[in-house]
Amino acid sequence: MANEAKPCPCNIGDRFDYEGCGQEVQVEHIKAYVCKPSGKSDKAVIVIHDIFGWQLPNTRYIADLLTANGYIAICPDFFVGQEAWKPSNDWASFDDWRKTRDSSKIDKEADVVVKYLQEQCGAKKIGVIGFCWGGAAVHHLMLKNPHLKAGVSNYGVIRFFQDAYNLLHPTFFIFAEKDDFIPLEQATMMEHSVLQVALLEQKLKENCKVDYEVKIYPGQTHGFVHRKREDISPQDKPYIEEGRKDMINWLNKYI
Question: What span is annotated as the signal peptide, if there is one (predicted)?
Fold first, then answer.
């Protein structure tokens, strides 16, 4: 179980040995990783990293996977130069670290990235996906940003969500059955109560006017979509592949 000594379930998991097919660019005050398909595309996806930052090879692998499916993919540094979390850091300092990296205060950066995609990449339809910290950021953007068409939140830490569920755009929520930090029914008491996935579904049903889906993947743990390698996790491989396929299918449907 998560506890106050380790207030986040995150570890690197399987760190991919992956260099990426794209390139790093400067977008106004933000560094970003960008990958473009060989053919022309007017569809783009913003990939929001987890606490390990925009340079994590695993996240770039997902960006390149999106590009292989016809999307311009961009993974900006939403920490804007601040250091990403390191597995060697003291977990007792995590809450203080996170306070300076608020997943609901990324609107300025999101607008800069959208403008870049529209003006420099020719994108007309833009979606967003995110992982953990980035999953919470997706929830935030789906409430506020009129320029985005759809979103996928991968195991967004629910206690980071705002208490708001009237989403503007179709949003897909991916959760793991055995995620100690995001329990499906029984809330874990920490400094704050962790909202249950069941409560999220209830609130969406009551307040959300656009399409949404909440899906729980059996036997999986936090980070499974982008932090597990299917070639060394044969028992998890079907669910890793299913999560990625579901994510792309959702984007294909609404972008």
Answer: none
Catalytic residues: 132, 179, 222
How many angstroms separate the CA atoms of 178 and 171, rounded? Answer: 22
Report, in this order, helix, strand and coil percent for the chain, each rounded to 5: 35, 20, 45
Tokens representing 134 are 């980035």
- Residues 219-250: tens digit of each pLDDT: 998 899 998 777 778 899 999 999 999 999 99
Contacts of 180 (CB under 8 A, 6+ apart): 1, 2, 9, 188, 221, 222
List the alpha helices (DSSP H) in 6-165: 57-68, 94-99, 107-120, 133-144
Q: CA 220 to CA 178: how far, in whole Å?
A: 5
H or E element in which residue 243 lies: helix 237-254
- Looking at the structure of the chain, the number of domains it has is 1
- Angle at CA of residue 58, ends 250 and 249, nearest 5°: 10
Domain that holds residue 243: 23-254
| CATH code: domain of residue 59 | 3.40.50.1820
Question: Phi and psi dihedrals of 75, rounded to 5?
Answer: -120, 95
